[in-house]
Design brief:
Layout lengths: L8 E4 L2 E6 L1 E4 L2 E4 L12 E7 L4 E6 L5 E6 L2 E7 L2 E7 L4 E6 L5 E5 L5 E7 L11 E2 L6
Antiparallel strand pairs: 1-2, 2-10, 3-4, 5-12, 6-11, 6-13, 7-10, 7-12, 8-9, 8-11
């Protein structure tokens, strides 16, 4: 982390990681995956409910930037050039990952209950012209 980055932010080539604020009580938890200044420019949003042990992602996007908020516990693994790095999102915390085009990424639910992923992409979802290439980082 450099001196100009706020606490809870990590910048890597092709990846930005930010810990988000979670408001939790006996009813559950609420988090905002994007602050108002970032709402414009996204062309796709989708929510994933991932079962215990399930792996999602294992791909990269050639054109689109993808931003994913992960409610832990989860393993997040990504490839920066030839290097593979990973982060463990603790239970009850939400971390946001922004992946630049070409950065492979994968998510694994490491807990005993479902976890939530909220993803935004700068490209429309078009099954006939998919912006996704498989890159296995976590074995299913």
């Amino acid at each position: 982390m450099t001196a100009t980055e706020p606490p809870g932010v990590e910048i890597r080539p092709g990846v930005e990681i930010r810990k988000l604020k979670v408001h939790a009580d006996a009813r559950g938890a609420v988090f905002e995956p994007l602050e108002p200044a970032l709402l414009a420019g996204w062309r796709n949003v989708h929510t994933v409910i991932s079962q215990p042990g399930a792996v999602r992602g294992n791909h990269r996007h050639g054109r689109g930037t993808e931003l994913t908020a992960v409610l832990g516990p989860a393993l997040v693994r990504y490839r920066i050039g030839a290097m593979i790095e990973e982060r463990h999102v603790p239970a009850g915390e939400v971390w946001r990952f922004a992946f630049a085009p070409g950065t492979a990424h994968a998510f694994k639910n490491t807990g005993a209950t479902p976890v939530v992923l909220v993803s935004f992409n700068t490209e429309l979802h078009d099954p006939d012209r998919a912006d996704v290439e498989r890159d296995e980082l976590i074995a299913p």
